[in-house]
Amino acid sequence: MSSYDVIVIGSGPGGYVCAIRCAQLGLKTACVEGRETLGGTCLNIGCIPSKALLHATEMLHEAEHNFEKMGLKGKSPSVDWQQMQAYKDDTIAQNTKGIEFLFKKNKVDWLKGWGSIPEAGKVKVGDEVHEAKNIVIASGSVPSSLPGVEIDEEIVVSSTGALSLGKIPKKMVVIGAGVIGLEMGSVYARLGAEVTVVEYLDTITPTMDGEVQKQFQKLLAKQGMTFVLGAAVKGVEVKNKKAKVSYTLKKDDSEQTLDADVVLVATGRKSYTDGLGLADLGVELTDRGQVKTDEHWATSVKGIHAIGDAITGPMLAHKAEDEGMAVAEVLAGKHGHVNYGVIPSVIYTHPEVASVGKTEAELKDEGVPYKAGKFSFMGNGRAKANFAADGFVKILAHKETDRILGAHIIGPMAGDLIHEICVAMEFGAAAQDIALTCHAHPTYSEAVREAALACGDGAIHA
Ligand code: FAD
């Protein structure tokens, strides 16, 4: 039996970051992981592999659509799916091995196997029981399905199966127009699949800014994706390796079907705490099965904390990481803090979509007086040169104080551009602060400055 100051269960971005920070703060730390490699959902079957496939297929799209325009002639590349998969797998391996290296460097012990908590202060892995002054649950999440839809990871797949299909399907139906569905849908659309997205709500990406939603849907449709909105999926039938998706159109109650070679079920994820023994311990869960925590990530049982996808809040890697660092600070007797008002969210399609803070709809609901400064990438020289002028930056600032309340970007590198606004919001900056900051020319970030100028006396290039 070994004794630790902290044992973290789960090595996703929440767990591994927490373990490393605990060790850096002088706590003797171990991390339990049942998977064969470290890094959790994010590195193995989430953020990283999906971004590798998005990158490869974006390059293909660029070659097919823009090379000739720039005088780059010749045959456009053909797709070697096995090689693209190998590139994705290599990207995963580099990242997961990187975490192993960081564990060694920071002296975090990896306890290999599935862990459970027989009692507060103890973690069982295999036949061994280890002692821990503190336990952090970072057990993450798994895909959730719909009633009547059985995932076989071959014809009817979750995001996990969609990352490793045996071949590129001719026809794909994506159930759910959220981030994962649209990212994976656009991968296969660029690879030539006929992709239809079926969504229960009347809009795609329901939490996004309304104007962004509309333009985003238009741009994805232009890239060949078809949307069926306001449709309640009733079931998926699989026969002879083909699927039939049946749904009811809410506007007229009509029953419809769609044929597909592959159906991706992207209807969300649920917290995963199976096998930890939380019920016997008396660790309280929400009615959605998430571990209940207070503002310092403490659960209802002393000495047990929880973070990441296992608890409430957006299921995002960087939210899990921030909580991992913050809870480590708390366990080391410091003051860990996460500003939940400034957590960016990004969709890595082409163009990218990114947002932080409040949407216009939320500000209206809350009765907050605001102004919106908007700037189109059409007025940005770099975007025009790079065939990336679709989209805009919108900054929302308080009408009287000019303090930035939110920002919504659809356009090139939106996922990187959003961080200028995040930093500004962390510092309580006004739109004028960004407007008065010199931005290098020609960069996409000038569009952010122009949107900030539009909150005041007006953008220059509009
Ligand atoms: P996880 O990453 O889920 O890790 C939990 C780990 O705990 C797992 O490895 C699991 O094996 C282990 N575990 C669980 N129980 C036990 C146990 N009892 N014993 C031992 N080990 C255990 N987020 C973003 O921010 N950006 C993105 O671009 C993005 N893309 C995504 C794409 C896809 C396809 C998917 C599925 C998700 C994506 N996400 C993205 C979400 C992101 O992956 C999660 O929010 C993040 O991984 C949550 O981190 P976590 O540490 O809470 O849990």
From TrEMBL:
Alphabetical list of PROSITE patterns matching this protein: PYRIDINE_REDOX_1
Keywords: Disulfide bond, FAD, Flavoprotein, NAD, Nucleotide-binding, Oxidoreductase, Redox-active center
Reactions that this protein is recorded to catalyse: N(6)-[(R)-dihydrolipoyl]-L-lysyl-[protein] + NAD(+) = N(6)-[(R)-lipoyl]-L-lysyl-[protein] + NADH + H(+)
GO-annotated biological processes: 2-oxoglutarate metabolic process; cellular respiration
Disulfide cross-links: C42-C47
Gene3D superfamilies registered for this protein in UniProt: 3.30.390.30, FAD/NAD(P)-binding domain
Domain of life: Bacteria
Listed NCBIfam families: lipoamide_DH
Family: Belongs to the class-I pyridine nucleotide-disulfide oxidoreductase family.
Other facts: The active site is a redox-active disulfide bond.
Protein name, UniProt field: Dihydrolipoyl dehydrogenase
Taxonomic path: Bacteria, Pseudomonadati, Pseudomonadota, Alphaproteobacteria, Rhodobacterales
